[in-house]
Amino acid sequence: MVLKGLMTSDAAADRVVPPSGYTARLTMFSAATMAFLAVFALALSLSAGRVAQEWGEALARSSTLRISAAPEELSAQTAAALRVLETTPGVEEARPLSAEEQQALLEPWFGPDLPVDTLPMPQLIDIVETPEGYDSDGLRLRLSAEVPGAVLDDHTRWRRPLVAAASRLRLLGWVSIGLIAAATGAMITLAANAALAANAKVITVLRLVGATDAYIAGAFVRRFTLRTLGGAALGTALAIGAILVLPDAGEAGGFLAGIGFQGWHWILPLVVPPLAALVALYATQAAAQRVLKELT
After folding, report:
1. What is the model's pTM?
2. Helix, strand, or coil here: 97?
């Protein structure tokens, strides 16, 4: 019944609500602004969760074995470690990193001129796991017996913070959207209160000629809901356009390279205008009932 009333035009009822003025502009501006922010909060939340998940999955299938030993023993321990890894179920590939690769890993911190050959660098072995993975505890026991200078890093300490960060960012996104919805409802309530107070005399006359409070409230609800829907649609369109024209940060951009929507997530911004209109509907209904009761 409420939706039918919103879609049915009533010229007489529409004249109860001022078609322009500061309340109309406030409603449209608030709805557009909040929808814009909601779409960006949604995009940031989804992007952060997606990037963290990709990083976590990449780390989940890779491990690093670090061998620290005297220079004359390093080659023998490396060979022994490779033999252990080749016979470990769940290890798909094990490859010792070259001096150039290890220097490239240290370059972001120490620069390109680091004399790797003159430093007592450990030997790093890159391990690629099968989808099933391997028993890290069992592998550590074997390594401790056969390669005493080996330290296995299965990236667990990296994965856990990423998973926790993704969960918190998603929660923060939903909290932000909830706060935006609450702020939208508050602004719509203020605008509806102002419009109702400004039309107190008109409401009194309408009551004298037999108009019910439900009829008067319906006029305000319809006008403010449609204004909010229009403003939110504009804000959503602007936010989607802004996301589409974001420059590509490339692989070096990390998190910034993934801001936006992918796949079916592009449907989610389209839900923002109807939800904003629903918030406006209930906020205006509550405001109209309260003010009309006070004017009795």
Report:
1. 0.67
2. coil
